[in-house]
Amino acid sequence: MKDVVGGAADDLVRARERLLAPAPGQRRLAPGALREALTDLHEFWLAAHATAAGVRPEGGGVALAAVGALGRRELVPYSDLDLVLVHDGRQDVESIAEKLWYPLWNSGIGLDHSVRTVGEALRAAESDMRTALGLLEVRHVVGDTDVSGRLADAARQAWRVGMRNRLDELTESARRRWARSGEVAHRVEPDLKHGHGGLRDLQLLNALSIAQLIDRPGAELAEARHLLLDVRTELRRIAGRARDVLHAQDGDEVAGALGMADRFELARALSSAGRTVMYALDVAFRAARAALPARRGLVEFGRSALRRGPARRPLDEGVVLHGEPDRGAEVTLARDAQPSRDPALLLRVATAAARSRHPIATGTLATLADSAPELRRPWPAAAREELIALLGTGSGLVDVVEALDRTGLWGRLFPEWGWVRDLPPRDAAHIWTVDRHLVQATARAGRLVTTVSRPDLLLLGALLHDIGKGRDADHSVVGAALATQVGERIGLAERDVATLAAMVRHHLLLPHTATRRDIGDPATVHRVVQAVGGDLVLLELLQALAEADSLATGPGVWNDWKAALIADLVDRCRSVLAGEPLPKPEPLDDDQRKLAEAVAASRRPDVLLTETDHTATVTVVAPDRPGLLSRAAGVLALNSLEVHAAVLRSHAGVAVDVFSVSPRFGSLPDATLLREQLARAVDGRMPLTDLLAAKERDYGGGPPADAPTPRVLWFDDEATGATVLELRATDRIGLLHRVAAALEGCGVNVRWAKVATLGGTVVDSFCLSMPPGQDGGAPGRGMPDPVQRGRIERAVLAAAR
């Protein structure tokens, strides 16, 4: 390479780009080969440049060494270079460093660098965990091999000697990282590098192996590493920049590059790899803690020397806690336990582990996998009771199910689990794979057991409510059949089996009805009562399950507005079952009526803002005219108000549109500002479309890229004499404004609207009717005919894109 000293590294950049985007007719490198080529390219450039800068092969007292991805020879596209210029006190080392670093900086190549003697590097590692871990992977690039070799040997020796004092710091830093980045195994959009079960954790396994606390990682972990690296390589090659989080919209392209069918196959493979790494590291941390002596004072040390072995504390029949609770204690079998003769022992071990928040020992899991008997149908009462106890342990359930599933024991209890294991969801609201979502929902249900009369059925229903997913049929229908199968196998009474199946069949009934239909319509309430068969126990179970399911879906899916709507719907159903009259639709309150009468007199629009605990009611009153709904929705969107529901009424000859809203962030806007903007919007003096487009660009970078195709569904007879149009689309700033404008442009009357925001997706429901004389679908009832529906649907879909 010419001009190797000074200037820029443009030749390196060009060569790298040719590897990432080969010319037509040139072979596209596989991900592993690409990493090798990138590593060789950068090493060749660095060696040539360092030599020209004054780094001599032998005896020069200075060496260039690589750490990080380059040190591991795992350089993926757009990785930073982690370099150490190590020396033995050479005076001109800073000049050499400048000649090395500046060309890389000038060409925009990411660089993490240091210039240190061996002693300085070791002292830095003593105080900084990241530096210490990096030096474990240090690899000579060019220069004096004696200097770089001394650094590598001394860093590893210091790591082994100091591990007893650093294990707590190592585990705590890992836990903080996991809390920030989540898990690779069960996240819909995993962080391949920092997530629990990702590439950083593989580095920790290597570090524990270097400390001689665990064996070197085996073939299964090598396969997991290979897959994680391949996915990260293709993700960055496709994105054209540094990326570590695999988003759903990138999944199909990455999967295709790796020869997989689609993003769902890729997600399952990634989840399996993540679980392998996660489980191996959890076991490794426990093994390391058990292998290292605890730091104690002299008195404590003297006492510990008199002990015959680790403490064993009974937890349940045949189950003990082995070791000190704060020193990696594990749940194990008692010495007199007989797994082959005790059908409920497996579940007692699991329950004890979940309650005590201690892991099950690896040897105990292996023994149970080999010796625990298959539970006969129906299960003995003791086993069924232990299952319910396990499911009610709350957050402790999650790690226990993971351990049982890794060893095949969970699948032995629930063979149906295989369909949902590592199964990615098909909607953007879910952040977990289906199997983890079910466990999370059960853990959430554990905090709601006092709200229902049958807590056992609530826990079972939470565990099974999505068990029918992964098949080419309605998952609620398939799941109900599977729930019947499970209920009969574990020995539930016939009536309880029917209730469990009904919970699974109707687990979406309350949230969908409350957030997408008019619960003030008696017909809606009677349909819910009919669906639950007039069963009050089932009704309360479905209410609690709706909360647990929503909380386990993702952030923002459960909120006070949704909870209040479902509670209102359940109260109305109770009234019907008790033979009491349903409450009539809420009339306008005194303030709203007075405002309407004032607007009728002045003919000027006005706004009333009423704040409650977590939401607010915005009453928009204006002379009735086409376009009022869309313009009011546009003004609310400009002020960052998320609309949950809209009811369109009239009083004193003016329109009264009542919106339930909450601020997306910050506090509510001033009513005076809303009033002024609404007046301008109604008069056509406010360019709402342009302002909303600008707001979307400023806050979200413009319309979402690679958004899923919006869908429209039609539901007849959902309300008296009208039709419900349901739009499912990616959420956008001003979406309700655009869709309402499209409906108004079609000459449709909107009676009410509801908006359910689920992560980045919305489900908007509109109760529609056609003006008199245009109701071709059902004359006299206001229903649109097929031609009108087609025109309306095209307009709504165009507005949603």
From TrEMBL:
Gene3D superfamilies: Beta Polymerase, domain 2, cca-adding enzyme, domain 2. Its EC number is 2.7.7.59, 3.1.4.-. SUPFAM superfamilies: ACT-like (SSF55021), Nucleotidyltransferase (SSF81301), Nucleotidyltransferase substrate binding subunit/domain (SSF81593), Poly A polymerase C-terminal region-like (SSF81891). It comes from the Bacteria. Residues 617-696, 724-801 form the ACT domain. Uridylyltransferase (UTase) activity is inhibited by glutamine, while glutamine activates uridylyl-removing (UR) activity. Belongs to the GlnD family. This is Bifunctional uridylyltransferase/uridylyl-removing enzyme. It comes from Gandjariella thermophila. The lineage of its organism: Bacteria, Bacillati, Actinomycetota, Actinomycetes, Pseudonocardiales.
